[in-house]
Amino acid sequence: MAKVMFQFREPSGEPALDEVQRRFGLHDHEIDRQFGIVKVDEQEGLYTMLVDDAARERVAPNLDGTDPAVGFFSNPRIDTFGPPQP
């Protein structure tokens, strides 16, 4: 299944992966545990994680649609534009 970036706010500090899973109703198989939770902006309480794209349909309606920093974002592959330069 394709992975997407899931960004959310947690103003009370860095959350545990299990807490986020319960909060958003994510299933074990939908979470990339190796990626974990990444601090994007600690002062703003903004964090991101990788989840299966299938979780989007179930989770998105429960998010605050007025916050443009929160939600699901694509996770494009980052690669070189050509052969390595000497």
Features:
4-stranded antiparallel β-sheet, alpha+beta, 86 residues, 2 helices
> Structural class per helix/strand content?
alpha+beta
Quick check: average pLDDT? 90
Q: Give a short account of the largest sheet.
A: 4 strands, antiparallel
Distance between the ends: 37 Å
Tell me what you see in this structure:
- Strand 2 (38-41) and strand 3 form a beta hairpin.
- This protein is globular.
- The longest helix has 8 residues, at 17-24.
- It has two helices and four strands.
- It has 86 residues and is of the alpha+beta class.
- The chain has one domain.
- It starts with a strand and ends in a 13-residue tail after the last strand.
- It has a four-stranded antiparallel β-sheet with strand order 2-3-1-4, with no helix packed on it.
Task: Tell me briefly what this model is.
This protein has helices at 17-24, 55-59; strands spanning 3-9, 38-41, 46-52, 71-73. The protein is built from two helices and four strands; from the N terminus they run βαββαβ.
Topology:
Layout: E1 3-9, H1 17-24, E2 38-41, E3 46-52, H2 55-59, E4 71-73
